[in-house]
Amino acid sequence: MSIKSSLRFTIYQTEKLTQRLRFAPQPASLPTLLGISFPKSGTHLLDQILLGFSNAAPYSKRLHSFYAEYEGESGKKREPKQALAWLDSLHPCDIASAHLFARPEAVARVISPKFVPYFIFRDPRDVVVSHVFYVTDMEARHVHHEYYQSLPDFNARLNVSILGRPDFRAERSQSADADFPNIADRFAPYLDWINHPEIMAIHFEDLIHNRAATLTRIMDHLLARAPLPATRQLILNSLETSINPTKSPTFRSGKTGEWKKHFTDEHKKIFKNVAGDLLVKLGYEKDGDW
Question: What is the pTM of this model?
Answer without folding.
Answer: 0.91
